[in-house]
Every structure is written in structure tokens, then in C-alpha cells.
Write a structure and sequence with these properties.
Elements: H1 3-21, E1 35-41, E2 45-65, E3 71-76, E4 83-84, E5 89-93, H2 96-131, H3 137-169, E6 172-174, E7 179-181, E8 191-192, E9 201-216, H4 217-229, E10 242-245, E11 257-261, E12 271-278, E13 290-307, E14 312-313, E15 319-324, E16 330-334, E17 336-341, E18 344-349, E19 356-360, E20 371-375, H5 380-386
Length: about 400
Amino acid sequence: MTFLTKSFRIVALALTAQLLAAPAGAQAPGEMPPTGVSFVTLAARDLPVVSELPGRIAPVRIAEVRSRVTGIIQERVFEQGSLVKAGDVLYRIDPNLFKVRVASARASLQRAQATELNAGQQLERQRVLRERNASSDVEYENAVVVQAQARADVALAQAALDEAEINLGYTDVKAPISGVIGGALVTEGALVNADSGDPLATIQQIDPVYADFTQAAGDMLSIRRDIAAGKLAAPEEGKAAVKLVFDDGSIHEQPGNLLFSSATVDSTTGQVTLRAEFPNPNRDLLPGLYVRVQIDQAVRKNALSIPQRAVMRDATGAAMVYVVGAENKAEARPVKLGVALSGEWIVEEGLANGDKVIVEGGQKLQPGAVVAPEEWKPAAQDAVDANATTPAK
């Protein structure tokens, strides 16, 4: 045996001894270190089924201001675009003619009252004469009729006076409801007619406001079928969360209240109309404004969800995730995803309660690769995104 051969055997024996003395699980020379990944442990929970639907803002009440008497506009009292209260004077119509009519009606009433007084005196005289047998029954009965006619004339004159005073009051055109009044549609000097259909102004009550939105009848029917089949649970009465989303993605500060869904389907669009009511103290929700409405239409019991960034696609485009398996080895799992909610995907199939799904670091993995897992902690921006609901797909 040569010296070189003896030296090679000595080195080989030394390396073997080092390997045998190394602790179990230690990285062998030349091997890649485990890939650092972060994971979340799945826990089943109740999740809302959220639909995001298009809609428009509408006032809860709208009233057209009209004149109830014919006359000339003398003054416009309100400021256009301002907030008015019910009973506020908006226009003043020239009252002089109506004052004359009130005076005439009052004089007619006084004359009728005088006639009634005289008729009463005549009746009393006929009664006395009748008791003395100095008057016939016919004369007494005629006196009774005259008094009754006089009383009717008083009532008629009183009604005419009341009507004249009411019409005089109508010369102050008042707001029928509280709300925001639009532009003036007539100016001072214009002749307005009680029989005309033209409004003088329009008032809209916009605190609160309605949001009218639509949903495909098929989508609503599918949710109701899933509820009937037990796949979903109906939200508690009056507790369906309703939110309003603007074009820039921001959410209205106050939640709404679902009022109703229509009982018919629009034959031209196949849509069902729903209505929600939203507080609008700052009057930033204006009638006609386009919005999106997020509504919790059901509850998915014991559902599993994963962060959207945990999902990858295989060569066929199918969704998959990596799971931390036995001995910290990565396992590829195909998954079936549901709707997106609050930065997460609802998992329909492929995962189970307690699975450790890799959220970050999965792009560098291959099935069976050893990983160094740690609990995933979302960044501050992720927490913000998680509070915003994404549209259901």
C-alpha cells in the first residue's frame, strides 16, 4: 500500500467520523439552506357574503312648490340652493286683491248676521201674538222659516269669509317640507296661476337619502337557494350591513339600512331593485350621484379564507397554494376559490381547518422543499387593505 493510498483512507475516515458526530437534521456540506417562509394557520369562522352593486342616490322626499292662488309675484324670499324648513315663506304674491275680498266677505257676514237677528226678533213677536190668539199659525210658521234661512245665510257668509282669509294666507307661498331648495323658476313680476302645472321651485330632502341599486335576479335567486339548502345562513333581521362606496374607492362614513327589495323583475334588464337609507348630515350625497353599494346578503358558516397573496397559478392557470407539511416540507395544494372579501379569498375546496398556508416565500419553492416557517404578520398597509371589502367575483 502506497503512502498516497494510506493518506486518502485517513482523510476519508476523518470525514466519516465528523458526519457521524454531527447532530441529526444538521445541514450537510453543499446542501441549500431551508427557504424562509411565513404562513397563516387556517381557522374556520363565519364570513359574510358581500355583493357590490351599482346604484344612484335619490332624495327621501321631493316637493314641487306651487302657487295656490292666481296673482303677481311680489317678492322672492329664499336664497337659491339653501336649506329651508317646512313653513318658511318662499314667495310673496301681491295680497291687495285678496284683502279686498276678505273685507267684502266680512261685510256680507255682518249683513247676514243682522238679518238673522231681525228674523229672530220677528219670530219671538209672532210667538207672543200666537199665545194671545192675535196671530195665525201660518204667520208663526213663516217666521220660523225666515229665521232658519237667515241662519243658513250666516253660515254661508262665514264660509265665504273663511275661504277669502285662506286665499289671503296663500299669498305667502310656504315650503311644504324641509330640505334643500333648488333654483327659482319664476321671478318678481311674474304672473302665477293656481291652475297652472308649472312649479315655482323644487325642494329635496336629502338627510337621510335613499340609495336605489340593482342586482341580477339570477344572483339573488342563487343566494336564496343556497340559504334554503343550508349552504349559507340568512343575516339576522335588520342586521344586514350596507355600505356606500364612492368612485374613488372611499366608503361613506355612516352605514345604511336596507329598506326593501322589489317584488318584481324588470322585464328589460332582468334586474331586481333594492333600496337602502343612509344618513347624510354633511349633504355630500346628492340626488343622482352614482355609487356602489356593498351589502351583506348572507353568512357563510365555518368558512375558510386565505390572504390573496398566498394564491399562485400553475401551468394550466389553476389556483394553488403551498402548505407547510410534515418535517417542514412544502406541499402544493390545488384549491377552488370563492369570492374575494377584505383582501382574502374564500376557499371552497382543497384546504382544511388547521392547515398552515404559506403566504410569503412560496414563489421560490418546489414541492417537497424544506422550509423554515414563521408566523405571518401583515404589514400596516395590509391591515388597511383588509378593512376594505373588494368586489365579489
